[in-house]
Amino acid sequence: MKCIKILILFCFFISSKICFAETKTDTITNWQIYNGSELLFRSNQFDCYKPTGIIKKMDNFKDLRIIFFRDTQSYGKQKIQFFNGKNLISEYNIENNEELIIPKSDIQKLFSKSEIDLAIKYFDEKEPKGILLGFLLLEN
Prior knowledge:
- The structure is a single chain.
- By secondary structure, the protein is α+β, with helices and mostly antiparallel strands.
- It is 21% helix and 45% strand.
- The protein has two helices and nine strands.
- It has helices spanning 2-20, 104-113, and strands at residues 30-35, 38-44, 52-56, 63-69, 77-84, 87-95, 99-103, 117-123, 131-139.
- The strands form two sheets. It has a five-stranded mixed β-sheet with strand order 3-9-8-5-6. The protein has a four-stranded antiparallel β-sheet with strand order 2-1-4-7.
- Strand 1 and strand 2 form a beta hairpin.
- The radius of gyration is 23 Å and the shape is elongated.
- The N and C termini lie far apart (85 Å).
């Protein structure tokens, strides 16, 4: 009789763990920045250094692609900002998308505004303070 009580208690305990357990995500938020089809750099939320990608004004490319991946596919409203120091140079708004494509014409406009490093920051509902993705060096 005692064994049956222990068995029933054990089954109840196991079934409650299965029914009420939470699934915790354990993947790392990561991103890649492409100059057309060429990878400029990739990084993730735990890298202690932030890489720099270099784009030359005369490079033959059609766009700049920023691919941002998080295991929870719901991003909501997203924003990518380019800063020169503390000055906001350019901003792009997207919604629920892993990839932002910035046309070459927009990148060419950045050359006229700045010839130094630009910081690239990503914002969404889960990251209201933003994540520094890396730096972009524009060379003439």
